[in-house]
Design brief:
alpha+beta, 2 domains, Cathepsin D, subunit A, domain 1
Length: about 180
């Protein structure tokens, strides 16, 4: 009489090998996604951690580099909340998308019409306690909340930029306070 053998005993090493092969590909895929996600973020916003220098005379400088579209995009803070700014000298105010404004607790004030590149829109006035880029910190900055903006990028307009000196040297934009 012969001893019964388990039918799956010879398949176990094959299954484990296949599982390890699939796991290796999943790990590789996750690493590639992480790398390219960071690379794409860097292409859109090359100033993710803007560096500041303070001179002996007390002037704070932040140097920004342009992205691939030649725009100056940088991380910063509004009232202590992390945001992404697009510097826009054509914008009268700092302009914040309404979803972002709600998530950081901004209070919408008086409504008014504003002329934008996409036509006339109704915006709400608000005031920002603080705006920060690197070591530059501005206080009590006029802003507008725009319900028509679809992404979470904040336009850093002249209500903030007029408080600092800025100059372009080569590709770099130098902000001074």
């Amino acid at each position: 009489m012969s001893t019964p053998t388990e039918p799956n005993a010879s398949n176990t090493p094959k299954r484990m090998g296949l599982a390890m092969f699939i796991l290796a590909w999943l790990v590789l895929l996750a690493m590639l996604i992480t790398f390219f996600d960071g690379w794409i973020d860097e292409q859109v916003n090359p100033n993710q951690q803007p560096l500041s220098e303070i001179s002996s005379t007390g002037i704070t400088e932040v140097i920004l580099m342009p992205n691939r579209q030649h725009h100056y995009v940088t991380n910063g803070f509004i009232n202590g909340h992390k945001v992404v700014f697009l510097l826009d000298t054509g914008a009268t105010d700092v302009v914040i998308p309404s979803k972002l404004a709600a998530s950081i607790g901004l209070v919408a004030g008086r409504k008014q019409l504003a002329n934008t590149a996409n036509g006339t829109v109704t915006v709400a006035n608000t005031e920002l306690d603080s705006v920060q880029i690197g070591g530059i910190k501005l206080y009590r900055i006029r802003a507008s909340i725009n319900p028509g903006m679809r992404d979470n990028m904040v336009l850093l307009g002249m209500s903030a930029l007029r408080e600092i000196e800025f100059a372009q040297r080569g590709d770099a934009l130098i902000l001074r306070q």
